[in-house]
Every structure is written in C-alpha cells, then in structure tokens.
Amino acid sequence: MLPQDGTAGDRGALLLLDLDRFKFVNDTMGHDAGDQLLVALGQRLKHSLSSTASVYRLGGDEFVILVAGSPSHGKVEDICLTVLSLFAEPFQLFEGQFWTGGSIGVTFIEPDDRSMSTVLKRADLALYKAKDVPGNSHRFYELEMATEACVKSEIEHDLSRALEQGQFYLEYQPIVGIESRAIRSFEALIRWNHPSKGIIQPDLFIAAAEKTGLILPIGNWVVKTACLEAARWPAPTGVAVNVAGDQFKDRAFVGYIKACLAEAGLAPGRLTIEVTESIFSIDPLIICESLTELRAHGIRIALDDFGIGFSSINNLRRFPLDQLKVDRSFTQAMLGNQRDADLVDIILKLGTTFQVATTIEGIETEGQLEFVRALGASEAQGFLISRPVSARDVMGILARETVQAGSLSA
Ligand code: C2E
Ligand code: MG
Ligand code: MG
Q1: Cβ of 190 below 6 Å from ligand 1
Q2: Are residue 123 and residue 171 in the same domain, yes or no?
Q3: With a 6 A CB cut-off, is 389 part of the ligand 1 pocket?
Q4: What is the DSSP string of 93-121?
Q5: pLDDT digit string (tens) for the chain, length 410 residues
Q6: Ligand 3 centre and the CA of 176: distance in Å?
Q7: Which of 83, 305, 372, 381 makes an SS bond possible with 327, Cβ 3.0 to 4.6 Å?
Q8: Residue 369: which CATH number?
Q9: Are 171 and 215 part of one and the same domain?
Q10: Ligand 1, atom 37: closest residue by C-alpha
C-alpha cells in the first residue's frame, strides 16, 4: 500500500512502472499465471531495490517505486535502468518461461505537492510517453506533458459538439496518372474549423475521435459528404475517402457506404476507400468480409501509408486490394538515400506482383516525380501537383483540365 496520509511526504522521486503484455498473460494463460507473474516481478523489485527504494503495488499491473530523500537525477536514472534490467531474464510461470518488459514514468516529488494523487498524475503522464516507445523505456515528467494533456482533453471535449455544429469540412487533393499527369481522382481530407482555435488538421484530432468513438459519426459524415460532392464532378473522376479501422466494427458501415453512393448517384467504381494496415489488427474475418463486400459492389480499396506499418506481404496476399499508396516518408528520403530508393523500388514491384496500382504520396519536386515514373509507379499525389483545395476549387481545377484536354485534342 502507498502512504495514505494524503500528502506526498518527503522530497524524493516516484517511479510508476507498467508491465507490458499483462493482459495477454491473463487472457491466454489465465489469471493464476497473471498473479504468478506479478508476485515474481514484485520479488525481483524488492530484492534489487531493498536498500534504495520502497516498492508498492498500485493495482493491476502497475507498481510504484518510491525513492526517499533528495536523490539526484542520475541516481533516479540508475534506478530506472536497474528496474528495466529485471526484465532481461524470463519469468518462470507454471505454463513455462515468459518474457515481458515494462515502461516507467518518473517524477520528482516537489515541496508544494499537496497529495500523492498529484504526484501520481505527473508520473502517469510521463508513463504515457514512455509507452509510446517500443520496448523497455523510461521518461521523466516534463511540464509540456501536462500542457499537451490539457490541449488533448480540450480537443476531446470540443470534438463532441463539432459535428452537430457543422465545424467540419473536406478539402480535396488531386491524384494524377503519372504518365499523362491528368487527374484521376481526389483524396478527401477532413478539416476542423474550430470556433476559437482556427483550422485544425486531422493529425491533431483523428486519434481523439478514435479514442472517444466519435470517429463513427464523423467518419460517416465524411463518406456522405465526399460522395455528394464528388457526384457533381464529371465522370470518371474519382474520390478517395480515408476510413479508420474502428469504423468497420460497426457492421452497418458497409451498407451505409452503399447507401451514400446510391443517394448521391455516384457510380461505385468512382469511390476508393483508403485504409491503413492497422485495420488488420481488428478481427481479420470482419475486415476481410467488409473489404470483399465493398469490392463486390465495385468500390476500390487502397492500402494507405504503405511501408511504415507492418508492411506485411501476407496482408497483401490475404486481403482484397486495388491500390497501394507508398508513404510520403519514402518519397522525402528516396533521392538522398539508396536504401529508401531501393525500398520504393521493392514496394512498386510488390504492386506489380500483386497486380495493384501504386500511388506515390508526397511528391514535392519534379526530380521525385521523374524518379518514381521511371520505376513504374502508376499515380502521384503531392504538393508539386497541388495542395489540398476546397470543394469549390475542385470544380475550377477540373474545368481548366477539360479546356486544356480540349485544346490538346483540337
Ligand atoms: P493521408 O491519408 O496519408 O493523407 C495525405 C496527407 O499528406 C494529407 O495530410 C496531405 O495534406 C499530406 N500531403 C499530401 N501531399 C503532400 C506533400 O507533398 N508534402 C507533404 N509534406 N504533405 C503532403 P492531412 O490532410 O494533414 O491528413 C493527415 C492524415 O489524416 C491523412 O493521411 C489521413 O490518415 C488522416 N485523415 C485525413 N482525413 C481523414 C478522414 O476523413 N478520416 C480519417 N479516418 N482519417 C483522415
Ligand atoms: Mg489517405
Ligand atoms: Mg497516406
């Protein structure tokens, strides 16, 4: 048990340790194995820290390590490394040996800390950051973590009203055929016009929308709006819509997409659904069924940001796809770095092997465009061609294209 007097007590440091894969142990080996793992870890902690710190179990798979006195940053750092070194050996469970790891959030206890819960909150923010790093790691609390958490919780709060208050809109970025440079489709990209913060880009709120479940109504709004807006464009110009994995957990989603197409009067072949590899961590059966049903209806499926996730060849074999989009981090690096150039080449060859079209994202220079054209990419997207534009500007761009095509053929 932690000290219960409600005060943080001495100057000192608090380490909050969280175990990796504890849920996996409980779910797959049973709760007895989970208990055994906790006891074994507790013993290791007590044994190695007995002279330097006190160890408490906070609950679940979280342990608190309290270092009394006024330890230096270096000493606390050493304690963190000692704790993480305890995961170097496997744990002996009834079921057999089990390797696991941990993450630590660290904070110093300040003189004006009025309660242990304040200290734990800081350690928790640092732990959250430590968990972002794969494998064993520790992070010391920094003030910016609290500011960031505050902004995040404000965003979560404001997000819940943004849809009904009509604060979202879509921008569209052209995707062109690499040889003709003619526009084939536009990718719909959501923007949030926040009443006091101004325009917020999706990278800052999609994760919050996923966390709160708001991605379902917001995602539905995106599909519907993109279909309605694209229906005004001349055929066969297509529209690509980004879809988060959680949206497929709603078994009505595929039917909803079809209904949006019907309502807008947009031919299914003009819609591409962009998914990232993270969807494959959701129930593979649901994903496979959903993608198959969408394709059977004539809708295209693109695998977005390919190369930075699992980049699993098996996913390309198992799931029905029409298009691979090579992540823009490769585009940025490929001309200065042989390894990335080779990787782009390999991904494009994978496209040929699996008979799917390939789009290169993030093209910013003629040199990049020429490079991927020579490697055989089918389509390109990026600031060189155009930044994302408003729905109204799409009409202007398409009208200009039609005039140019007309004058070329005349
Ligand atoms: P994405 O699907 O990979 O979209 C491409 C992103 O790259 C867009 O950022 C686009 O503005 C940016 N981009 C395009 N060309 C270039 C370039 O040449 N250079 C650079 N530096 N960037 C370029 P954006 O609009 O900020 O979107 C970020 C991500 O947010 C998207 O990545 C997508 O994953 C997600 N997103 C956007 N709209 C939606 C949506 O409606 N639903 C969901 N679930 N996710 C969305
Ligand atoms: Mg995309
Ligand atoms: Mg992408």
Answers
A1: yes
A2: no
A3: no
A4: ETTEEE---EEEEEEEEPTT---HHHHHH
A5: 455 444 444 579 999 999 998 988 888 888 999 999 999 999 999 999 988 999 999 989 999 999 999 999 999 999 999 999 999 999 999 888 999 999 999 999 998 898 999 999 999 999 999 998 888 999 999 999 999 999 889 999 999 999 999 999 999 999 999 999 999 999 999 999 999 999 999 999 999 999 999 999 999 999 999 999 999 999 999 999 999 999 999 999 999 999 999 999 999 999 999 999 888 888 888 999 999 999 999 999 999 999 887 778 888 888 889 999 999 999 999 999 999 999 999 999 999 999 999 999 999 999 999 999 999 999 999 999 999 999 999 999 999 887 766 655 54
A6: 15
A7: 305
A8: 3.20.20.450
A9: yes
A10: 189
User: Is the shortest distance between the CB of 189 and ligand 1 below 6 Å?
Assistant: yes
Distance between CA 102 and CA 135 in Å, rounded?
7
For residue 44, tell me if it sits in a domain: yes
Task: Give 171 Cα–ligand 2 centroid separation in angstroms.
Answer: 12
Judge whether 374 and 178 are in contact, CB under 8 Å: no
- Which residues, 6 or more positions from 130, have their beta carbon under 8 angstroms from its beta carbon? 103, 104, 105, 137, 138, 139
Range of the domain at 313: 158-409
User: Does ligand 1 have an atom closer than 6 angstroms to the CB of 242?
Assistant: yes
> CA-based angle 167:188:173, to the nearest 5?
115
pTM of the predicted protein model = 0.81
How does DSSP classify residue 202?
G
Based on the fold, state whether residues 202 and 327 are members of the same structural domain.
Answer: yes
| Whether 32 and 110 share a structural domain | yes
Any atom of ligand 1 within 6 Å of the Cβ of 368: no
335, 390: one domain: yes
Neighbours of ion ligand 3 (CB under 5 A): 304-305, 361
Q: 127 and 162 in one domain?
A: no
